[in-house]
Amino acid sequence: MPAAPGSLSSEHGIGGRLASVLIGYGALALAACLLAPLAGSTHISLARAFDRSIPFPDNVDAQIFFVARMPRVLTGAIVGSTLAAAGVVMQALLGNPLATPFTLGVSTGAALGAVLAITFGSSVPVGALASVPLASLAGAVVASTIVYVLATRPGRPISTMVLLLAGVTLNAFFSALILFVQYAADFTQAYRTIRWLMGDLDVGSFAPIVASLPLVLVSLGIFAFLPRSLNLLSVGADSAATRGVDVGLTQRLAFFSASLATAAAVSLAGPIGFVGIVVPHLVRLMVGVDHRIVLPASALFGAAFLIGCDLIARSVLAPVEVPVGVVTAMLGGPFFLWLLVRRS
Amino acid sequence: MLRAESVSFGYDGGFTLSDASVAITAGSLTGLLGPNGCGKTTLLKLLSGVLRPRSGRVMLGDRVLSSMTRRELARHVASVPQETHPAFDYTVMEMVLMGRHPHLSAFQLEGPADFEIARQALDATGTRHLADRNYMTLSGGEKQRVVIASALAQSTEVLLLDEPTASLDLGYQLDVASLLSRLNHERNVTMVLATHDLNLVASLCQRLVVMRDGCILAAGPTADVLTGETVRQLYDVDADVQFHQRAGHLTVIPVRRMS
Description:
The complex is a heterodimer. Chain A is an all-alpha fold. Chain A is built from 14 helices and no strands. Chain A has one domain (13-343): ABC transporter involved in vitamin B12 uptake, BtuC. Chain A is globular and about 65 Å long. In chain A, helix 12 (275-287) crosses helix 13 (291-315). By secondary structure, chain B is of the alpha/beta class. Helices cover 32% and strands 28% of the residues of chain B. Chain B has 9 helices and 12 strands. In chain B, helix 4 crosses helix 5 and helix 5 (140-152) runs parallel beside helix 6. Chain B is globular and about 55 Å long. Chain B starts with a strand and ends with a strand. The interface between A and B is large, with 38 and 46 residues.
């Protein structure tokens, strides 16, 4: 990998780099959030959408911008950002750059929950929330609890090998269950399941976004404490311990926060693949591997990336929409292969 | 200054270490010898606090290790593992700065003082010119010296090394040996060195601790402990142990396997 831009030997290397990364990637994410709602079948103007002199009920541009299109763009920002950040944390926790937020079975658990709700559940919303996101959240919690219980023993560091094996096995097992449920479902339900599994940022309103915010904020809040410990952990658990890292605590916090972030993202928009691995790797190519920079940069770039992918998804075959998960996979798959070839 | 008082430890069920007592005096360079699986690494991990003894205790000065937080402990005792394989390609400077972790608060970034300590550690290990290189692109000897630099940046009084020369060629072995000797003399760093290299400990260490089957067999000045009899007991090897004029220390020539 190319060395990080700017010599690290310089005195204020990290602070300066962090600031420029936050400003640069922050501007990119903000621009994506403001420009993406402009694209669509009806042409609108950004200036008119933000024109306060026109009352909102009369301002068609503002209505399209904020009510029709903004929820979808914001969902893209939140999901892209949490999946990318969760990917960074998962890769450091497992000491494996090829790990994804979905490696430990969280997303397959969420998918099983969603599929069960689609097939057997009533479509009656529970309170203000729809049953499918709630069921997928429950599935994610069940899956990560199983993996956690298998891989931890009190007072010991988590065995990342057991964690990885438990996650992979659970993924396979839950996938089999999903197939079975689909087999038992009728055509409409099976189609809805497939559509859910492809991921969809079109959540319809701000309500689901607001509902997911507590989980997202808690996990991002925990992420903020992790970066320097993740640096050390990714060098080796014992070595991190002798450098003063509470390895057990760091691993548990990393597992909990990454699982929570993934669960929130997947219950909001379905399991959108590749974001959690493509974005961290792209970011590392640009800013180096220090987690104090990679983590915030990935969160911001992830938002812009998924908004961009969704823009492609709804414009490339317009008026027909391509599922956004297909777009991320189309971009992510070849990128990933290129990364592998480049490494060897 | 660092004492293990009849410590025992076992991973699952059995004991890999039983009733071991060791006293490391300040400023000394102690060699830890013993066949594979005798508990050397376990003892080092107990001394560094990575493992907690099942019985007995480890004392740092007048404090019990288990009463200290990881952070606190890491300001007094640093370790160099046998090999270090980071999952990501950190630069050498980043690797060395990680040694500053126990001295920084949660959100604190390294300041000029930390960079100065890191640069001194790079100088001491002769790796200053590698500062902006990526760790994974280095040779085995360079890597080991960078990891030692990272441990030095921790600014501790004690340094524990687990087979620091195991994967190095002869030239690098001598480099690391003279580095350790220099650090011991100039910086007065107390060191414990686990190794299979008898000639290395003969040239470096004032004191030896020899272990077998999870027990301490003997401990004392190198000249008293490093004998043909000890080598036979440890490895079932018939060896000549002689003072070598040109080298200026004892040397061990293995002659044949006994059993």
